[in-house]
Design goal:
This protein is mostly helical. The protein has two domains: 100 residues, no CATH class; 103 residues, no CATH class. The radius of gyration is 19 Å and the shape is globular. The mean pLDDT is 88.
Length: 231
């Protein structure tokens, strides 16, 4: 897990390794270079599936070990003052699946939204983020957004593509926290819309796959079939 967030920049990477060496036992640190080399050779789309495979083993940590691991992981992610989409998805997975195991209180998810209307701004954030992640040109992003928006707004009057600056990771985080309180049918409808946006150009980019996986996990919904993204 730590190897997955090591920087590609040599100076930053060395700083991260120094931080790890100062906080973990020598025998664990000695094995890190070989693990890091193997992780670096992974195809980008295999990184999040690897995280999912590692979660059961991490549940076997002691509370103090988990506390040290979680603190170090966040420190490494934030060391370059910039969190990318993979790191965001990784941290969300760790917090949701592991923090409650080690005593952090998991907020009760009582359904608060039974209608889509009050959540449309949050839906626009997620659909816009996916459209911008998968497409470099504005017209293509607009087409991808429209494909997903039709699932939520068939008339095309209530959802608009947001500029990339208005659907950053902080906005995505806030939108997911609210959407997690929606009724299951609304969550499925939204995830279907996200899948349509991702599939609009006939291919799933790694960035799109990482974001839609984080969305599905946060909403506790299975990924729609046919996306070419491993569950």
């Amino acid at each position: 897990m730590l190897a997955l967030v090591l920087s590609g920049d040599e100076d930053r990477r060395q700083g991260q390794l120094d931080a790890i060496e100062a906080q973990v036992r020598a025998e664990y640190f000695a094995g890190l270079p070989a693990i890091a080399a193997a992780v670096e050779a992974l195809a980008p789309r295999d990184r999040l599936p690897l995280v999912s495979l590692a979660l059961p083993a991490l549940r076997e940590l002691s509370p103090s070990q988990y506390e040290g691991f979680a603190r170090l992981l966040e420190e490494l992610v934030e060391s370059d003052r910039e969190i990318d989409l993979f790191e965001y998805a990784l941290l969300r997975l760790v917090r949701r699946h592991l923090a409650p195991r080690f005593g952090a209180e998991r907020p009760a998810r009582v359904v608060q939204y039974y209608a889509l209307n009050p959540l449309l701004p949050d839906c626009a954030v997620l659909l816009s983020a996916l459209a911008h992640q998968g497409q470099d040109e504005e017209r293509a992003a607009a087409r991808a957004f429209a494909a997903g928006a039709r699932r939520l707004d068939p008339a095309g009057t209530r959802l608009r593509l947001l500029p990339a600056a208005q659907c950053n990771l902080a906005e995505i985080d806030a939108a997911l926290d609210r959407l997690a309180l929606a009724a299951p049918a609304i969550k499925r409808q939204l995830l279907d819309g996200c899948a349509l946006a991702v599939a609009a150009d006939g291919q799933v980019e790694v960035r799109e796959a990482e974001l839609i996986r984080a969305i599905a996990d946060s909403l506790e919904c299975p990924l729609p079939p046919g996306l070419g993204v491993e569950a």
